[in-house]
Amino acid sequence: MRTVPLSDEIAIRTVWFDDHTLFVGLSDGRTVGTPITWYPRLADATSSERQNWRLIAEGEGVHWPDVDEDLSLEGMLAGRAAPGGQK
Question: In this structure, are residues 71 and 60 in contact, taking their beta carbons and an 8 Å threshold?
Fold first, then answer.
């Protein structure tokens, strides 16, 4: 998933959405928000599909099985959109 590890102390702990933003709560207390338009599969997903997520690699990323989407914390922090996402 990545070549340079983040600090072992930083990991995704929770995920939620509003109408325009994907939020992740981190183990160090921060909240990171990215536009949902960066992730076309999530933008097109139903609320139920968005709520069906699981952490991967001990919180280094999130997987949504219903829409086959995987996002990394590293990518979110670097501001990388998924292929086809609107920047």
Answer: no
pTM of the model: 0.86
Quote the tokens at residue 5: 């590890």
CA-wise closest residue to 16 among 30, 38, 28, 33: 33
At which residue do the structure tokens 């001990």 appear?
58
CB-CB contact of 31 with 24 (8 Å)? yes
Neighbour count for residue 34 (Cβ, 10 Å): 20
Per-residue pLDDT of 36-72, as tens digits, reads 999 999 999 999 999 999 999 999 999 999 999 999 9
| CATH number attached to the domain at 12-78 | 3.30.2020.40
| Domain coordinates in residue numbering, the chain | 12-78
